[in-house]
Queue: 4 jobs
Job 1
Amino acid sequence: MPKAKHSTGRDRYNFLLPFIGYIMQNEPVEISKAAKHFDVEEQVIRDAIHTLTVTATWRNNDYEETYYNFHTEELEKGIISLQERNGIDSAPRLSARQAAALATGLSILSTLPEFSTQREIQELLDIISKGSTVGAPQVFDFRPGTVDADAAIIRSAMLNGHRISCEYINNRQEHSEREIDPIRLDPRGDVWFLRGYCLKNKELRSFRLDQMRKAVELDVEICEEAKAIQEIDDADYIANDTDVEVIIEVDPEAYAMLGDFSAEILKSDAKTNRTTASIKVGYLPYLGKVIAHYGGSARVLEPESAKQVVREYALTALGKSLDTLPKDD
Amino acid sequence: MVNSGGYQRDKSDAAERLLNLTLALISTTIGLTKAELFSAIRDYRNDLQDGVNFKTLEKKFERDKNELRASGILIETRTLDSDMGDNQQTRYLISPTGFQWPKGVELTPKQLQLLQLASTVWRQASLSSEAAKGLDRLRALGSVSPTSDLIGFAPKVKTHDYSFVPLSDAVAERHPVSFEYRKAGQPKAETRNLQPWRITHIEGQWIVQGWDTDADDYRNFLLKRIVSDIKTSAETFDAPTDEQVLELQRLLDEHIASNVAKLRIKRDSMAWFHFDLPSAGTSEDQDFELQYMDVWLLADELRDYAGDITVIEPKELDEAIRHGFEKVAADHA
């Protein structure tokens, strides 16, 4: 979706600099084409042109000198065409942070089998390195995790806009055959998550790839409902009306849980960095496993039913029955 | 182009002021003093005319310089021999070669498409915004737009850890850091002092790698176990050599290869799926070996599959799993 506006002065400034570089290379150019190129609404381009037109410097306390002048009649026809120029004519180099953020993005892509052999990625890394203000400090290193055979099949299906079928075991330990129209595939920790339109439930669902096997790309186009899903919330868990609200307390070691459940932060202790938050849980028994994962860094405060689920999960795992439960005094 | 000052003043537009400052500083060869800038840049000039005092304006200029620096625009300072000793005579300028892209780089639609994809991997808001700004700068180098944008194809990488951004800045700018680190299974955190060299995503975890100045040795720290804010020193350390970085990676790889766990996995269970064991063959449970980086992290992972897995070795893994369950049971009693 094209960006409708830049929210801060810094963001607008950061857009203006490369925009100037683009105009210098490409004018005369249609406003619509420039908007498409930068993935912004046409109004963003018009605002940028306005700012370029009015930016001016006083010379000798005498007169103001503008830097860029556009042909007004061409602008009215939707065409950017320079009459005079006086300022910079190229895009700026990348800041260290911008270079690091993009270079890492490229390294992550190169860990995917589809991109691993592409020389374009190496070429781009070289370009970024040359075009950064500080050379290329390598800040991040992304090592590929477990290679899941199903992930490659799903990515191929996504590229082709195809449906997949697979065998799935859900959090209730039920096995089933599924057909899914894949939309997005993300790593979380060492596990890949697929967000897709589930043909069985007729809605957007999240699937763990480590609970999936025998994925097959079908020669079937994804359905209209799946195509209509443009943007997906970044949370891995999609909340439902029937969910139970659970209050948890987490230490820094378990902060990941806050993001995974789109938690609402209730309070944070600045000294211990311990955070209390509210999360929504669809299937309560699943919570036992989630809390136990953090081995004591995450706790359920309420409701009692949720605490009990967690306690039972831990005690069952320890091979203790519930009547040997230590009494809380 | 001459304009006699007839433009309606927009109410202090930050983007326009920053652009004006950039253009003024890049088009001077000897630099401009503060006083010259305050009379040349329309927004500053208007402030002066509105009666804003010089000190306040100096603060605004400092903030603007920081904004430019944060955007990767390097401002140089110069003092002319004739002005020596007078800091009001410090001259500011932006060198065109430091500012501009090296000539002759043009990106193809295919390269732009890859960059677009690469810019979407960050879920962390500030990194995602840096990547988007960088993408715009690179877009200026391509005239033909990519035809498709492959929405959803690039994985999104999560960084929950509050220490992620301060640490990545410290790596980029080579500042030593200190933080409180709580080792797994230990109640108390300890202060660690580190020259951070690299932030690495490995086995689903973010770690910061570098030189521990207390231990005088290479060290790796899991970001999730950093329990304090990051204190960044104003000092800088020398960049590690390529050999040092390789050595650091080699030591970590060696460490991982030396940790092997042996598990027995219940047939067709969730753990069976998780470890992607084959569906054909015998109907019996299966033994499975894997390498790991940290016994407590592996214990966290395996606690998800209680009942599906028996640990054959090592003993510490079994203990770490049990320890976690006992703590959880006690916490929820």
Job 2
Amino acid sequence: MEIFNYGFMQRAFLVGILLATVIPCIGVVIVLKRLSMIGDALSHTSLAGVAAGLILGINPVASAAAACIIAAFGIEAIRRKLPRYSEMSIAIMMSAGIGLAGVLSGFVKNSANFNSFLFGSIVAISDMEMYLVIGVSAVVLLVFLLLYKELFYMALDERSARLAGVPVKQVNFIFTILTAAVISIAARTVGALIVSSMMVIPVACAMQFGKNYKQTVIYAISFDVVFMIAGLFFAYYFGLKPGGTIVLVGVLSLLLIFTGKKVLGGKG
Amino acid sequence: MNAIEIKGLTFSYGNTPVLNGADCCVPEGRFAALIGANGAGKSTLIKMLLGELPLTGENGTIGLMGRELKLFDSWSQVGYVPQNGMASYKDFPASVEEIVQANLYSRIGLFRFGGKKEKELVHQVLSQVGMEPFQKRLIGKLSGGQQQRVLLARALVNQPKLLILDEPTSGVDKENTEEFYRLIKKFNREDGVTVFMVTHDRNCLSELTDDVWQLQDGVMKRVIEERKGENHGDI
């Protein structure tokens, strides 16, 4: 196929499939803990890190990761201060992140570079960025498998998980770092404004079919990989922006699933 | 030995006192209920019992299974059944089997998945509460009463000595509530599991419980003592 004759498309597929494998691993836990908006808040805050990195001349992916980690712990700190209105912490941190990104972006000399993080540039990533995605994906996947039952129990019922002996604080800490790492590498490739959709939509699709947690995780990964491949194909052959196309494929699939279930359910 | 021993417990949220020198003891093998109006501090007390809220020497002491709470580390001996999870589990994509097995965490250990032995334990406890046929079912597809029986199985899978239940039948219909109480009573009477249950359901108290404690104005007082003829140890 013509699409695979180009090195940049081969890289895009490799990186895309890796991200589509690890993003739902984080997404399934975030969704089940009813914290879907955290992905949005962290990805927006990562833009402030990107801008800071570009201004200071350090790797913007690394500075985005640092900003995500600070934001994630900031959200936790505000939640502890305002336990009855915990969702407010996400809104506060998201506003702070967007505000800071907006101000700092004014000082970035190469605005095209900054803008590439908004919607990503999966077809224009360097070898170094590809290796970074491979490394981070491998670590995230390994840790997710090692902490599989801990993350499941904590998503189900954190209090009972703690009583059963799960080291809740430590696992939450590790999960925060993983989330920040995934969001920052995904921001560069699929876009900071899009990454949270990639966390939530495949999980929403998988929840329509999964008969247990294990199946739901496998289905979520499968859906995201299919959305990624289909999105890249559509983007290439119709000249569309890949990040947005991937998400739209996911949203349309979810709508089709909802509609199909309603129609079939109605007949049944 | 007292399974639960609370002495002079005080707790405030900011300037609002919730517990004001509460005392209570539940000897091993007893079935005790805790009642109280909304906002009386029942949830706070449960949180303190489960070690979720800070407990310094100044705000009283809690003993569990004969040990001070600060030193208590045998949490697998304590089973906990939360309030009806109907709303929170509605779309949760987990099977009954997965939910019960999750509580075998300390037995399975870090970086391992459950094996045949753990699956066998899960099947056993599910059959004890009459939920074995539903083990592959999604938790959200069960009725409120069935969900509570699954949560009871989860609490019992480690064969605990103390069972703490937080309004387990709120939102559950009468028939399922009665079945749930029958099971709890059976585990209490036949297996000697000590039960401490927070409840709003005053109808169940006289038939089911040995002692009823009421939390009011931050203090606990015992209001009923049933089955006086039976010897359950000193109170």
Job 3
Amino acid sequence: MYQYDQHDQAMVDARVAEFRGQVARRLSGELTEDQFKPLRLKNGLYLQLHAYMLRVAVPYGTLNSAQMRVLGDIADKYDRGYGHFTTRQNIQYNWIKLADAPDILADLAKVQLHAIQTSGNCIRNTTADHFAGAAADEVADPRPYAELLRQWSTFHPEFDYLPRKFKVAIIASETDRAAMRLHDIGIQIVKNEAGEIGCKFFAGGGMGRTPMIAPCIAEFVPALQMISFLEAALRVYNRHGRRDNKYKARIKILVHEIGVAEYSRQVQEEFAHILTLGLEPPPAELDRIKAMFADPGLETGLSDDLDRSDPDFALWVDQNVHAHKQPGYAIVTISLKPTGGIPGDATADQIRLMADLARDHSLDELRVSHAQNIVLPHVKKADLYRVWQALDAAGLATPNLDLITDIIACPGLDYCALANARSIPLAQKITERFADVGRQRELGELKLKISGCINACGHHHAGHIGILGVDRKGVENYQLLLGGAESADTSLGTITGPGFSEDGVVDAIEKVTDVYLARREGAERFLDTYRRIGMVPFKEAIYG
Amino acid sequence: MSAKIKIITGNDLRTGDVIWWTGEGWSRHVDNAVAVDHDADAIIARENARQVVTDTHVIDAFAADGTVRPAHIKDRIRALGPTVRLDLSLKPADPQAGNWVI
Amino acid sequence: MVETVLRYRTDEPVADPAVTVDAFAAQGNATAVRIEPGDDALALLPYLDRLALIEVNFPSFADGRGYSAARSLRERGYTGELRAVGDVLLDQLSHMRRCGFDSFAPDKPISAEAAEAAFATWPEVYQQTVDGRRPIWAARHGTKDA
């Protein structure tokens, strides 16, 4: 894992000092709320429905156990004993006091964490494949590139007041576990025919009210020109992105309006100019970062044997454990989606327990997945049973990964000032309706995603089944979408028709799953059946 | 009979707490909110200048029998707390409190 | 009220008023120009030799086009005065300086002391820009100063 040196530490420490001064100026009245708001947002501090909310960055979703423990401690010390893991691999605290915020940033800085650029119209925290460094199918670990990108984007002086927020995701395998093409810029680390590592760039993806899948803008940019290319791509956007309407200000609208060919041409022109400036970090810098990710300490020659005699354990292994690139190891996903629970929430004690398990059984590493779960990436198969027992005792062993109850949900109107409808109570009802694990497994892979407003933080466009909460004359109403996906075969869901009440949408989902079970052929997933038979049979069942 | 009124809400600048204008100061309980009229802008300007409250704005509500019910569900949830964590709401002892927001 | 300009150059200030890009192109002898957020800064490139002052207007602090305009001009050889004018806030000075601005005329005056403190916000920087500061990667690997 990456470790700060004195330079990195000096930067986050400077940020804490800067924000401490800004908060003092706000409290004294020197700064008005209008002036202070963009400053606090660049430190992840929102004013939400009930209180201030602090969003802490988890760079490319990777944490060590000391960092995770501090995340738990902050929940106890400054909040109300819990935190919420988000679809951007971050964590949010819901009950923060303004005067405490600088102290929290100081506590975070001690373990090399921060809240820099977790909001505002700037380059946000870069997200990455949560199996990075452990997945068998990656051409390289994407995280060294993500770290290079983190440093470049941190306090970038030119791109602090972009037309709108800017999100970058990075992956290094054909299986896209990071919804890469639904980002402002997506980077896929690839190998060319000569065996050289480079970046395939996508631009102009996103969800929100105008969902778009990012087209490719460059097939292969040498890895040692990645930063220069990003400078070019961002500069063209900063110059020409729309600023007359915040709903048309994302890069996806620019790429759509001028066309991908014209956008690419402008980027290439600027790229050629930027390459003459020599502002790319040298190969030695990438090598320095790579060395810190190279070997987490995996042992060789371990056995792949597993005692599956406990049926509950075996079920969990089948559902929540993935193959690791190293024999004798496995990737464990801890579901934060218990039946009737709040998707992505974890108590301080649960957070600290996961930290302990990472320290003792996962080479000190954890990941946050964009599906709001926690990953222990390097667990010896011999330790799996012990890990499972500890998780089970803490309510963290729900065997539902990628099943219908592994729901992504935004905080919705229970917490969010932008929401139009509540998301969490609906998620709770769905998990209760489909609580039977056998039934869930019969339905197989089924990604259900709920957003409480058009901003789509709950990724409803990309759900096999998606739900969008809307406000219909002051009453919560839910639209149902089918057929979205966010993997290598990214697609956007289609609205079934008129919306539903909270209970009505749960009934409609059940009818949708009934159609699937009746019509599926062979080993088809829900998504496959939908793509084969189309919307009509589902619509007839729901509205007929 | 309930009367349609306008009330002022905001957040405590330091704690972030949702607060309501009572005519003399600020309360965390919406039932303490008082109706305002053409004086709203002046109250907001004066209170903002004191650096104790932020995001101050006027909303619609209904008053009846000493209770105040914001007109929009978002403000009712602000007045109660998260319906999925009633233990953290202003009515932790009432398991049915969530129904009030609907 | 006297206009307060924070200036970090040693040459004599330009006395001419800055004119619009259109007026500048029409006048053969103007030495100062003001660009607005939507203007193409690169259209000034043919005139760099006679330009002594480019004002970049920020009608709103949130419109960041001026940062790219400034840096682009510096990258392409402009060495005259580059002044940020308009809704320029204290907390923005450090980044503006990094993008090549060397004078500031904020609508709401900023004291020289406060500006100095703002420039000192970041003890180090990650990016190489046009201000001559050595990025952290250069310090790490002994690359010589930019």
Job 4
Amino acid sequence: MKKLGNKLLGLLPKGRHAVIGVPFFWMLLFFLLPFAIIIKISFAEADIAIPPYTSLTEWADNQLTVLLNFGNYVLLSEDGLYLAAYLGSLKIAFFSTLLCLLVGYPMAYAIARSDKQMRPVWLLLVMMPTWTALLIRVYAWMGILSNNGLLNNTLMWLGIVNEPVQILNTNIAVYIGIVYAYLPFMVLPLYANLVKHDLSLLEAASDLGAKSITAFWKITLPLSKSGIIAGCMLVFIPVVGEFVIPELLGGPETLMIGKVLWQEFFNNRDWPVASSLAVIMLLLLIIPIVLFNRNQARELEGK
Amino acid sequence: MTSFRFSRFMLFAGLTFIYLPMLILVIYSFNASRLVTVWGGWSTKWYAGLLDNTQLMNAVLRSLEIASYTAIAATALGTLAALVLTRIGQFKGRTLFGGMVTAPLVMPEVITGLSLLLLFVAMAQLIGWPMERGVVTIWIAHTTFCTAYVSVVVSARLREIDRSMEEAAMDLGAKPWKVFFLITLPMIAPSLAAGAMMSFALSLDDLVLASFVSGPGSTTLPMEIFSAVRMGVKPEINAIASLILLFISIITFMLWFFTRRAEEKRKKALHKFKTYKG
């Protein structure tokens, strides 16, 4: 009996293997495998059944038939709505990443150059909102931006405008919401990079007569490249698939792919089309994701 | 130093931009008027009304339950992943592993949510589990993406700490697990707490993943809020939103305060030890 017990124990993975195996298996099963399934379902057809799609393989009369339905992808390429939604997502993601960088870089710079004692406090102040519900922070803007909201009331009180300006349910509101929600994700990697810079380089530059603005362009900015890449990717990639912000702050003119996918899935109950939308989105994002992962790996290895 | 003055200004402007909307939300949650944009005097009636809303209260309890499970599981898995990435050298599939751990950080939630739902449906067909989707499936989804956050936080800390103590213990013949529990773990404990807290908050906040993988009768708080918010701004939502903001801010602040104190204590002890030895 004891022998058997020992044998069974022997089957259990030991030390190093268990440490690698447990998280590896979890991520393989719940992160990577689902992508294979999503690709599979994107070749199925919607069906009134549970689950609501047809099977790809069929076994009848000793024949195995594999049915690959490219209809979803044909639909995606022919219907202008989907193309417009992809382009709209990429456009909004690009400009909001740029806005985040323009606002976030000076913020990260100010924190990195502030008093050593104060740095964690500033950083906490920037990061704290990301731990509090995104949904609620977006919701807060709905009250501010609406036609009879605080912003319009203030503008009218100041006499800048005579009647309310439509801001909520336009792309402007979407930009505000995205920059608001994603700014901390830009600041954090930039700060982590900027704080490591060797300031003696800047001193040397100034000793040699470089103006501080020249020194910034020639030294600080190139050195912060990996921080810029990390920050931009942390904003750009999730924003392409963003759903909550365009849904709550955007309007009919806001075409974003996350919203379209959501509608296909929850309103039209067309799982295969939703899957093919996700597959194409993934293909669009694969280059930025690989770029991000490489950058992260370099940072993680400590160069 | 003009560039620094400009960046200083941007820091204050940015922080105002971040905090002002939340402040406004909290102020308006005390508005007596049902019209959310008209100020009708101070009142706490919306807070009192929350307790009678059993549907909302059930969702709150369910979300807290899922968030607690997620915090525990994601911290354990994320710490293991961080150990693999920082302390175990090369092994087959290391690049794949690194990719799988960091990719959920940026992966759009609609993709992760849909793909996980399809996995659960396929699993139910193949092995009969999970028969119905609910708390467990949401927990799995949240754990998967929170693990990535935890592993980033913990591995940053693992790289930072002085490895000489671990090496000394190893040289003296301590088993790897003993080294981990007696030496490494106490040193990285603050980052574990931070990771757990982050997972808790992320889980409590998630709408998209939960919407995809939940089943009938397992509505979480964000789902409840979302369906109410879609209809426009409501005073009850202002109240529950303010409570969540307060709750998370207090936990965050406490966490920050205690990790800072622990860190100072540790540094003092180390300093004392070194001066004593010297």
